[in-house]
Structures are given as structure tokens and as C-alpha cells.
Design brief:
The complex is a heterodimer. Chain A has a two-stranded antiparallel ribbon. Chain A has one domain. Chain A is mainly alpha-helical. Helix content of chain A is about 65%, strand content about 0%. Chain A is globular, with a radius of gyration of 22 Å. Chain A is built from 11 helices and 2 strands. Chain B is α/β, with parallel strands linked by helices. Chain B is about 35% helix and about 20% strand. Chain B has 24 helices and 19 strands. In chain B, helix 16 packs across helix 17 and helix 16 packs parallel to helix 19. The radius of gyration of chain B is 25 Å and the shape is globular. Classes of the chains: A mainly alpha, B alpha/beta.
Amino acid sequence: MNDFEILQNLSLGQYRPGDSGIYRLNPALKLAALLVLMVLILLAPWFPQLPVLFVLLAVLARLSGQGLLSLLKGTGPVLPFLVLIALIQMFFIPRDYAGSSLFTLGPLALHREDLVFTAKIFGRFFCLFLLFTLFTTVTTVSEISHGAEILFRPFGRKKAFSHDLSLVITITFRFIPILAMEAEHITKAQASRGGSFGTWKTGFIKKMRLYIPLIVPLLIAALERAELLVEAMEARCYEAGRERSRLTEYAWNVRDTRALIILVLLTLVLTGSRFLLSFHYP
Amino acid sequence: MSFIEFRDVRFTYPGQKEAALKNISFSLDQGSHTAVIGGNGSGKSTLARLMTGLLVPEAGDVLVDGNNSRDTKLHRQIRTRAGLVFQNPSTQIVATVVREDTAFGPENLALDSEEIRKRVRTALENTELSSLSGRETHMLSAGQQQRLAMAGILAMGTGCLILDEAESMLNPRGRKEMYSLLASLHAEGFTIIRITHFMDQAAGAEQIMILHEGELVSRGCPVEIFRHTPFELNRWSLRPSPVQELAAFLDSPGVNDTAGGMKGEVLLQEEDFIERLKEVYPDISGKGQAVAFSTQSAGRTENVEQEVPDVRDSQTSASTAVPVITLKSVSRTYGSKSPHPVKALEDISFTLRRGESVSVMGTTGSGKSTFLQMMNSLLLPDTGELTLLGQNPLDKKTDLAVLRSRIGLVMQQPEKQLFASLVGDDVAFGPRQTGIKGKELSRRVRDALERVGLSYRQYRDFPVRALSGGQKRKAALAGVLAMNPEILLLDEPTAGLDPQSAESLEAILLSLHREGISLVTVTHNVEQALRLSDRLLVFRDGKLSWDGPASGFFQSHDPADYGLEYPLSSRIAGALDLHPLPVTPEELRARLEPAV
């Protein structure tokens, strides 16, 4: 019964110290790779590019020195929601059906299109999840924000744009453990006052229902935290849009160039393959 | 020259009818050390925010080093001159690495990286955080986080620190470190303004300002301020300073007349009090031992006579009552599957008997909270046996919800977990979950509210948001009491409350204990631990280092090794060379008495 250790169950957004080649890449490159791979995953036709991407991510996970399973462990807590979404997608969302149903149960009917669609969302979900987990596992938050700053430097009219963006990223990640802790605190408070969190009797549906009263206090806690953080930032002279400077700078080396070439080639192959071979459905 | 000046300042929060601050005028000199005290909701935090331009007055002017906060262009000037440190250490941290967080301020000032590095280095050295500069911020202890917040302000090049109850979430060790840091900064010429609920700290300032319901009701040096009678101070939700209270206690009529010489004199500093005692009892020093053994009058002195008790030889008192909670060699590890498992509890054995009260102390991360949550079955042991009210929570047939309602847990800052909008509804949440309805439900709510001293008629339909800090805490306690628990587990029940609210909450807890409810209280306040119980548990690194009479612990251990401090009575007795050390005022009095 580990219902309360929300932070422990979250693998998304948790840096794990390590020192493999992937860890030592330039942060700007890591971030660029994240964005490119994200676009590839979102735009890839579901077969065969999506499985290829998944295999590729698994290889990267291996190279980083972190196991694939330990990275995917974070899906555990959201699995009930995923199953629910899958069921809704398969049975309740009407689509253009070409053939007859594969399977019926009372008013519920399952078609080939439903299956394909569900597989697509799930394939994407797992690829994206793995990508983000891998990224946050090998990148510290300060690297992320520096990376963003370097990448977006050419885009801002003023230098401040890239600074602000990198700050937004830093704070987002800073809030992940904070919110996890708040959630833990609230569930415990509700449980100690007779809520059924973390008891032996909770079934699947009941467990999902329990998360509903959690949303409002968690939102309030998040807003309060945000307000306090704003004050603390303002007290230290932060003003949005004003020029800031930086404590450290990062160097670019040979390893980064190599990784960049691989990334470019991969992008070309995967986008190119879209026109060369792709399964058409229905 | 006046550094901070308030000219007839008034401030009202948007949407509120009542002004948070009314007609405040004062000026503070550069290099001065000021304490601001007052009840929860008296306007202290608003005052601090006005000083740094985070809020702008509705009427009147605030000048910081000559800069008027009405002009938003001057805010940067103001904030580089006066830095604000907030109550909750973790909310002020922006970055995820120590040195980057320290650099946040100078980065905002767009200094070049060479200068930033220099400032970060100095600020971290000043706050003794240099060795942690590469550490992740959420891995720091609360005390370290608070020092980091101060480093962030120092790196801005400020010469003034404003601390808004910055010590309230720290343990005795963290607090002590912060005080010595402040003292050295003040010696360097820093202006220090401290908002605090700790009267002994206020007594150490050069001057004190008292806020009450948004007004500056009194201002002066500590001796002038604490000359007010306890009754007057109480009206402002304050109390006399601890040294003063102890002096008054030792001085109370009928005890002895010699100490009567202290009357009329305001003794605020421990050193002064010790000197005074040495004058009153010139031959007390060194005689301690012999005197102690002849004393039987003060009720609790039997502990003094005992040989230093063994850790396991503790359940001497109340040993006849039925055990309600038993832990046998219990261990618990967090994140056992992760690469960095944390041993939160290791081989803990403990028995709580019906009607007992136990105080739990130790540093942050020593396992106190895990221990408390385990007794409420929110956490279960990895190994060992846990028996709660005769049931085994590891047995899947056990209804944990029922068990938790019989063993009530009041978490840290429980008012944050109030979720209904009306007090009555919130208190009813617990019993309603167990299926209680109608008349029985309203009876439960009524009883619970009255037990914490909130009248049912007045507060049943009172909006939670409109309660004061102390009242919210009481309402949260009522929410747990409404489930009729036999045992109450409390995590820092009075942290962050003003002295008067803390006192009244403590009185409620003691009366609940008299009604037969068993109490287990985690606290950072040594004096409070002693007032609530004779039996003390001390945790260190997940292990139970002491389980036994409190006096035994302080007589045989150096509390600093456990992140604790000696109680005031022991500190004074120590300075007078009275051994073994008395721990409570009663014991100290008993030891001084025969010396006359």
C-alpha cells in the first residue's frame, strides 16, 4: 500500500544523477532533440514509424544507463485513467465505420477503426511519456532552462524573452516535487479524517473517484504556492521582460556535433519514410 | 538617519472592508535591530510587504532609504536595499540548485557573470552554505533552506534584512544557527527587522513594535515593552518573555521572600537573570547535588533522584494501563525500489498506554513524522509488528478507515486542509464519512466545537475563510475530535501560532488529556514538550535514541547532538552549576528553595 508516496511513484520530471554520454550532451542539443522527437512522435503515422521511434527511445534509455522499465514505472498511477480512456474510445466514440463490427456486447460494439485509433493514441502516449521521462532523467532543471535560453536567443526581439522562457521552465519543474508533496499531504489529511485513501477496501472505480475531492484543495495549494513564489521573486527584483544575466555558460564539443548529425539524419529518414512507405487505412 | 520611514500609512486588501493597517507612522535607523510582534492577523506581514514595495500603501507614504514606494520605478532601488525573507523556507526558492538560486537576484539585476559569481561565493560563505553550493534545493533541510533564502537576499547587496516569522518552521538547531547568523550580520552594520512569535527573540532586539488589529499600539525598548502586565500583553495576543515568566514563577508569593527582591525589575536576558539569581542565592553554586536529594516537595523531583535511566527501562509510569499502540522492531524505508532508498525508521519499539501523554522530538528528517503517520496506519511498516488498538493494520481484513477515526491525526498546519466553506460542514466531514447523520451528527459537531472552545451557535455557519489563524487551527482540531478519537497524534500543533493562541491550544490539549485521551505530540519546542508530558521520545537518524523521563534525557545527553536545546530552567541551573539539571520551572524552584 503505497498510495501516499506520490513523489515516489512519479518518474516523470525526476532527475537521476548519472554520468553517461547522454548526460554530458549540451543542454541546448538535448532540448532540441526533445522538441524534434516530440514532433516526430506526434506526426508519425502509427505504423511502422511509431514502433521504430519506440525502439529508438528504448535504445537511448539503455545508453543513458537507466533501465527502460524503471522509466516506464511512472505510468503506474495513471494506468486506471488510461484504461478508462481506452474503453471510452473503443466503445463510446462514434466513427466512420467501413466494415461491420468485430465484436458486440449488448449496445456496445467494437470496430476495427476503434482498435486502430486506440492503438494510435496509446502508442503515442507511451512514446511521449518515455521521451519526457528520459529527458528529465538525464537533464537537470538548470540545464533545461539554459538549453531553452540558448535555443531561443535568436527568436526574442529582446534578450529577455529567452530568459523569461527559461525561467518558466525552471519553475515548472520546481513545482513538480512541490505539488507531489502537497498532494501527499492532502490525501493523508483526508484519509486521517475518514476518507478511504489508502485503505485495503478500495476498488478500482472507487480509487478513481477518490481523486476528485483532491483536485480542489490541490489547485488552491498550487495557487497559494504560486502567489508566495511570485512575492519571493519580486522581492529579489525579478521583473518580467527585463534583461537578466546568467551565472554559467555551456561549451559545445565534438560529442554534441556527432549527436546533432545523428538527430538530423534520423529526422530526415523518418519524415522521408512517410512518403515512401506507409500503411493506408482503412 | 532614518532608513525606513512610514508616514501615516494605511492599507486595505482588495475586497476587504477592514483595513489591514491603519495610520502607521514610525521611522527606523540604519543599523538598528527591531522586533515586530503581535497576534496572528495583526498586520505584521502586511507591514513587511509594504517595506519592500510588494504592497503600496492606500494612503500615506513608505520611504526606504529615501525612495518612496509609490514610484514603481524605485522598487528596484528599494529591494536592493531591503530584502525580505518569508516564513516558509521552501516557497522562496526559485531555482533547483543552491548556487543558481543564490544567483537569481543578481541575475535579475543583469550584473555580469564574474560579479555574480563573486557575490554568490560571498553570500554562501556568510550563510555557511559554501559546501552545499551544488546541492539540489529540495534536498536541503528547512534550516538550510532558510539560510539559502537569506543568502539570496545577501547576494543582492542589501544592507537590511526583513524576516517575516522566518524561524517559525525551523527546529531548535536551525533557529539557533539563524540567530547567530543574524547577530553577526547586525554586528557588521546590517539593519535587521524581525517579525516573530518568539518573545525571547523579541526581547533580544534593540526595540520592539507591537501591532494589534492593524494599529501600532506600543513601541519602545524591550524593557519598556515587557513592563506591560501579562494581562495587557495578553490583550495583544502576546505573553511575557520566557525569562520573565520564569522569574515571576520563582517569585510567586509564598514560595520564598528572598527572591521578592526581583519584583518590579524587568529581567529579559538569561545572563541578567543568572546574575540576579547568583546575587539572591550567593552560595547556591556547587551545592546542587546535596540539595537536590533533600528535596521531595515539588512532585516531579523523583526523576532527579533516579540514576540515569536506561533507554528501555522507561515504561515505569502508568505501567498498569492497557497498551493501546505497540510497535515491535518496526522499520520503514522510503523509495525502497529507487536507487536512493531512505531509511525513515529503523528498529523502533514503543508502547503507548491508555491515557498516556508522550512528547516526541528530533530534527527534521529524523523519523518523527513517519512514526506519527505509522501510528495512524497512513504508513505501514516494512518489517516488524504494529498493533493499533489490538488490531493489526497489515491484516487486509482490518478496516483502516475505522482505525484512523479512533486514532486521530492532526497534521502540520492542519488549517490548510480545511476544505468545506463553513466551519460546521468541515467538522462534520469525518463523522459523515463513517455514516453518521442527523441529530447524532450535529451533536458530534457541537461537542467537538465546544471542546476546542468555539461556540457551536456562533461558529456552526461561520465561513472558514473568516476565521483567524488560531481559530482555524482549533476548527481543524475539532474536525478530528468529531470522530471521537481515543488517541490524538499531533504534529507541531502550535507552530506558527501567536503566543496567546498557542497557549490556549496547549490548554485544550491538556484538558483533552485529562478527559482520558492519549496524546502523542511532535514538537520543536522543548518547553512545550515538558509541559505536555513527562515522557519524552527523541529521534535521530530514524532511530529512537531516548524513550523515558524528559529529565533523564537532559541530565545524561547533550541535546545539541540531537538538534535540540536545553529547556530554560536547565540552562539557568547549568549556569548556576546545579547538577543533576532540573528541567521544569517547578524542579528549578524546588532546587533553589532549600538554598535559602
